[in-house]
Amino acid sequence: MPKVSVHWFRHGLRIHDNPALLESIKDAEKFYAVFIHDGETAGTKITGYNRLYYLTEALNDLDSHFRELGSQLFVLKGEPTEIIKILHKEAGINCITFEQDCEAIWNKRDNAVHHLCKELGIELVERISHTLWNPFEIIESNGGQPPLTYEMFLQVAQALGPPPRPCPNPEWDNIMFGEISDELAKKLKLYPHVPTPEELGYTQDCGESPVYVGGEHAALAHLEDRLRVEEDAFEDGYILPNQVNPDLLGPPMSMSGALRFGCLSVRKFYWDIHNVYFKLYKGEPPPSHSLTAQLIWREFFYCMSANNPNYDQMKGNPICIDIPWYTNEDHLTAWEEGQTGYPFIDACMRQLRKEGWIHHVCRTAVACFLTRGDLWISWESGLKVFYKYLIDADWSVSAGNWMWVSSSAFERQLDCSTCICPVNYGRAIEPTGDYIRRYVPEVARLPQEYIFEPWKAPLKVQERAKCIIGQDYPQRIVIHEEVSRVNRKMMKDVSQRLKAVPPHCCPSSSEETKTFLRLPKSCFHNVL
Ligand code: FAD
Ligand code: MG
To answer: pLDDT tens digit string along 471-484?
Structure first.
């Protein structure tokens, strides 16, 4: 039977290093490229404007690629299984390919598709390229359980050997693209073009202005810039430049949106950075995985969540410690809207809502503030806000990080005897206050000495700066010195009530904590 295949893009929105796509076109008589708006795929279930805008750009980028080849990306609306049934019946498709989405949250969708394909006799090809290693292989090699600490994860990964190198680009020369008739288009609810966020019912509701451009082309161009930064760092004798000097004011450097949507292959990112190092230090191997240690965190969290459908909540989640968090809608809203009265925290939250991305050091600061540091509100509430606004929002990576920062899993070193001070931390990371001035214009005219703690400014100074606290900018909603003391005690009580320290609550070393928090060494001791 001639092969009529569909490559279903979900994440993995790229042409390069796409093994499932290669399988799709191999010996195919006819080929279709498809994306399905089912209200969930690619994180569209809880999403704000920025992430959807990023997704739209990524889909447009793919669409133009296929249009140059005389076809298009078919963007359809509906349930994946219903769509597959129609494509099978009306277009004769007998092969479906896609990239593995390893997080447990996609199990229901993908199990249904597996089941249907079996029933209809459709060949289903699933390939791993969203992660460096196959999370299920890691779990298997670790005796059926995900490795519980980063260190253990590294050991298992090390035993499996280096991750595969990227696969070649597809050759399109002899590929016949399938067409969709007007009649079939109606049945499949084919969009006439990639729908805009507005067409999908999303509006800019908090001054969104995207900073990152979505799509493979932009991601690959961005990678070139990023590799130059890595090379400069290697030449200067250090690694992980994005972490060593957190730069909150410079041009956007992150690849995280591109990695989340798969506009950039994580294997390409990994190997390109290693290649830069190899080239520079001829023959000398880099210090294990440390060049790309952040990518290992990503793998670790994906792996942890692969067989844990409750990974994003406290209840029914075996790795999450039960903590009796407060419910306080006013505080939660103030935090979400960047109205806590702590300018550094507010700057971070406003940048998040506006641009859809904030630096790791900002994420840790706002997450600690919401949870064990100041407001004592559940990490689950913060996670939902991150899911909505981050362009790189990852079900498992975000939940894993939230559990880390809130002391709900993984970490013991911080132990809440130390928690991030919303004043000192901000000052250590970006002492000039320009970051605050950029996102919290109300306090911009205050002298530098007060910009991190405006409530300390004498009334005269506030008047001169046209920033009366409690009128032009909020009073701080809690007093950090007081609440953090109470919270510390509550956290101690929680840990004393634990019968035994869960095995995952122990970073391998204090170095690991520092690496996770990404604090410049110089300021590790006076920000907490
Ligand atoms: P780089 O240093 O360049 O790292 C490269 C890549 O490594 C990142 O793009 C990311 O894919 C991965 N990575 C880096 N740090 C981590 C980490 N701590 N855990 C897992 N993977 C990491 N990252 C997400 O990709 N999606 C999220 O939803 C997300 N939510 C977070 C929530 C909280 C509370 C915290 C503290 C962190 C979260 N992170 C998340 C991790 C991290 O902050 C971002 O990946 C990072 O800021 C992206 O910037 P970058 O690309 O410049 O990082
Ligand atoms: Mg990056």
So the answer is: 999 999 999 999 99
